[in-house]
Q: What sequence folds into this?
């Protein structure tokens, strides 16, 4: 089964402004796009054109301006895009390929073990669930985080009877690399994927579910936390070269990515299709993409799924 992809979306006011820009500018703005097309198949579905963009915002603009027919994003993000579009976009079909999100950590480090303990603590004291509730995320929470859980069976979260403040856990602190103890945990996120991670109204602060969870993890580990806005497909290389300590950007934990970094699972989501509410195509499955142009963010599993489907059309 195809895996869900991870990719960003427009923030609250930005969806409306992007739609307005599309109306004003037509299809003149292509913003770093790479296109991949299939050849029409004998079965008659037609070629599938995959347009990849550096940000989800650019992908959404392609749909609103008519340069693409369909968008793909993680289910909570697609739902947010539709909500913030005020009737311009609609979900098409059902989400597919539910898979775990993972916090990316460099291999050959004990940081993944420290983060796992911290996540379990936050689930036990109720802070994990409080963060999901704050961002109106009503599904996708899990209760069984683990390291490199690409094939794990997800156990849904259940709300605790009470919530207590997060506190430092000495056992988790003991697992930190010496260079991080009492220091600063540097977190990378592509802040274009609301409500998971996006830019605050001040134009610079990264906010959202992942940013709040990163800060809560820092509390348990007794360290400060900085969250930087980094292009999605640059995050894993930046974890590998040590520029950042954690990648918290709605990463789907899959076996290919586990070859590059370790993951601590903490959430789950599927991939959803979204289209223009008026006149958009009816997309129920990946096979229905044949004959259409789909807009995706570069480096995501949605992009991989769309390109794999293009070969079948």
A:
């Amino acid at each position: 089964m195809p895996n869900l992809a991870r990719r960003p979306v427009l923030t609250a006011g930005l969806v409306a402004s992007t739609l307005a820009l599309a109306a004003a500018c037509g299809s003149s703005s292509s913003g770093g796009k790479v296109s991949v097309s299939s050849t029409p198949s004998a079965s008659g579905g037609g070629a599938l054109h995959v347009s990849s963009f550096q940000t989800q915002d650019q992908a959404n603009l392609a749909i609103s301006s008519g340069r693409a027919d369909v968008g793909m994003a993680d289910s909570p993000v697609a739902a947010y895009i539709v909500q913030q579009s005020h009737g311009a976009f609609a979900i098409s079909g059902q989400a597919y390929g539910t898979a775990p999100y993972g916090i990316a950590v460099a291999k050959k480090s004990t940081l993944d073990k420290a983060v796992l303990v911290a996540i379990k603590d936050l689930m036990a004291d109720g802070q994990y669930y409080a963060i999901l509730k704050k961002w109106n995320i009503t599904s996708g929470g899990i209760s069984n985080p683990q390291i490199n859980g690409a094939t794990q069976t997800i156990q849904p979260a259940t709300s605790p009877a009470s919530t207590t403040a997060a506190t430092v856990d000495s056992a988790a602190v003991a697992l930190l690399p010496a260079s991080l103890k009492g220091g600063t945990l540097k977190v990378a996120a592509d802040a274009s994927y609301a409500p998971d991670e996006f830019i605050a109204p001040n134009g610079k602060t990264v906010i959202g579910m992942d940013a709040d969870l990163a800060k809560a993890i820092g509390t348990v580990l007794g360290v400060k936390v900085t969250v930087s806005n980094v292009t999605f497909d640059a995050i894993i290389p930046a974890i590998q070269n040590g520029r950042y300590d954690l990648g918290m950007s709605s990463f789907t934990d899959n076996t290919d990515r586990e070859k590059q970094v370790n993951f601590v699972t903490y959430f789950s989501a599927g991939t959803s299709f979204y289209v223009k509410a008026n006149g958009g195509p009816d997309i129920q499955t990946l096979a229905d993409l044949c004959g259409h142009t789909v807009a995706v963010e570069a480096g995501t599993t949605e992009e991989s799924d769309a390109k794999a489907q293009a070969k079948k059309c």
